RNA sequence: GUCGGGGUAGCUCAGCUGGUUAGAGCAUCGGAUUCAUAACCCGAAGGUCGGCAGUUCAAGUCUGCUUCCCGAUACCA
């Protein structure tokens, strides 16, 4: 977008079910903050919103775990996240929360408008239901044995042990975490967002309009989704923690957390407008607003496909870009709070920022390293040694040291004042140095504008490096010997000596002021402290001032230098590495204790003989009982049109290991039916077989092939499939009832 | 399984439409220097560009296959 009137910047809403680590910080918050601080320095109209995502089943799970209420959980973690972000200099204009009334209203209005406009669909589906607790169960609320690795505590959506993503149906011996009983399946009604209806729009908008300016991983993943065929997505759930679906016929239903969370950006904007007596609407409705969502790679489809469809249907503007970062690993392994292999923002703040030897500069140290290794194009890795090296030999030795030596020399050789610049003896090195400042300004701006913060920061350090070299070449400390030579050393007086020194330090100081402007979006604390040292106002940090060689007035006396950053000691990093190991070991022990407990019950049941059924075993009859669905009327059954047909041809569907494409002769017509039986039958085995087909089933696309009907199959206890068919050949097209 | 991204010097990463001896910072080693947080500055050494095949006068860069890491995920009506 060229020259937007205002900017609306968002960072992914952190989920308030626990502390968040520095990988999150590096992925979605720090880059956004740098961008926002840069825009503010440009004096743009920019609003930066974020907040805690406080709904969803994982919150209620955490409440069970901590033996408290969901509200208590979100209150606790919202407060923690909010203060952590503030402590680390993430400068939200508002950090809001989705449990607030204004968010509930906003999300409900959003749903109502889409529903009233006919943009949502209502469909029935079967969900697991806990009869004892009288409650539908989110996938997370069902535990059982993982069919892949046999882990006893797998969840309905994922096995934490082997990492496989699961559906609750796949669990062996599923149990409700609410009551412990085996859940049954029950029909429920939900609202869906028919993404499939917006394929043409998404193709144009993402694959054409943004194929150049969006990151390859974002466009690539969206392309994959679109090509795969978009499916309607449920926007409601049966749960009691969340935003009530604003309809009388939706008792006990809430908006699905993914639907309500991104609307949090809008409600946060509204709250900000109220607090600041502003109008929120232009930020979400005017086409001259540039909306940018900063996210991690796990969030791409929500922010690039689903939320934009919602926004479009609701009449809002669309994001101009969705800069998504990859992930940051830690000391050779994935960062994970639950496994204890992480550096929580909270912990870093306690260990470095709050200690007497830490403070703001340690915020900047972290911001420096996280930006320098930001996972912009691929996963990156945080190591404590890397942190120490980056801080000590780049931030301290190059940047901090340049500024320190400029200040020290100025105090020693120029009386603590900004020296005069003598144009008449200006040389090429001086010109070159001044020119470099301007070039660097351009490079930084160009990089930030395309979200390359790592490169932008490297430019700042590189400019300081050039400053060091310039000073080295000019060596004013040598020239100083010619100002007041010591005859015993054979020094010679040079009337020009002081002027040479003045020019060098004049340029070094102007460069220092420029460095303050350049470093400001990245390391705001350092920039502020530089302003104090130079006795300038914060306004000097406005971006338009960058490139100027007149930021500090001649004759102006400056404060004595103060070290901007301290070196990080070996002991500090080794302590952290040790701490990390201890933390993850402790959690591993705890988990294996749990495992051990479960295995013990297994063993006990074996020792007791076969009279007791072990938890890990599948009770087959029980399994069939579960499968009994809720009662229907004859009319419901009569709606189903069953016909006998013969399989004329069968072929494997490309890129699908379970699907067969079948031609079926129904007597009066031939049908294409796609059936998921490829693992049980090979195409040639089933040619000519008679089958029972649901003839009036709505067509459905699978792998791009439209399936018109479904074939009835029987499944035995081992999951083997058998055809349901007449026991003697009948005419194709015969009815079944 | 499928889709997407990625595997380039010890480490963190650049390398646009294929073109002379593959780049940067850090780490390492050597030199110079002392204004500076034993900092800076100069120089050297470091890579069969995950593997195999192919296209081409020429491939890190294109094609196919293969392997490893990360993310997203079906379908099974």
Which stretches are low in confidence, meaning pLDDT under 50 for 5 or more residues running? 596-631
Distance between the termini: 62 Å
Strand count, sense and closure of the main sheet? Answer: 6 strands, antiparallel
Q: Count the DSSP helices.
A: 20
Rg (C-alpha, Å): 33 Å
Class from secondary-structure proportions: alpha+beta
Mean pLDDT metric: 84
Total strands: 26
Helix content: 40-55%
Could you tell me the strand content as a percent range? 15-25%
**Global shape:** elongated
Care to describe what's here?
With 737 residues, this protein is an alpha+beta fold. The longest helix is centred in the C-terminal third of the chain and has 38 residues, at 570-607. Helix 9 (300-314) links the parallel strand 13 and strand 14 (324-325). Helix 3 (70-87) packs across helix 10, helix 12 runs parallel beside helix 14 and helix 13 (428-449) packs parallel to helix 16. 42% of the residues lie in helices and 16% in strands. The strands form eight sheets. Strands 17, 18, 19, 20, 23 and 26 form a six-stranded antiparallel beta sheet that branches. It has a five-stranded parallel beta sheet with strand order 3-2-1-13-14, sandwiched between helices. It has a four-stranded antiparallel beta sheet with strand order 5-4-9-10, with no helix packed on it. The protein contains 20 helices and 26 strands. It is elongated and about 125 Å long. Mean pLDDT is 84; it is low at 596-631. The two termini are 62 Å apart.
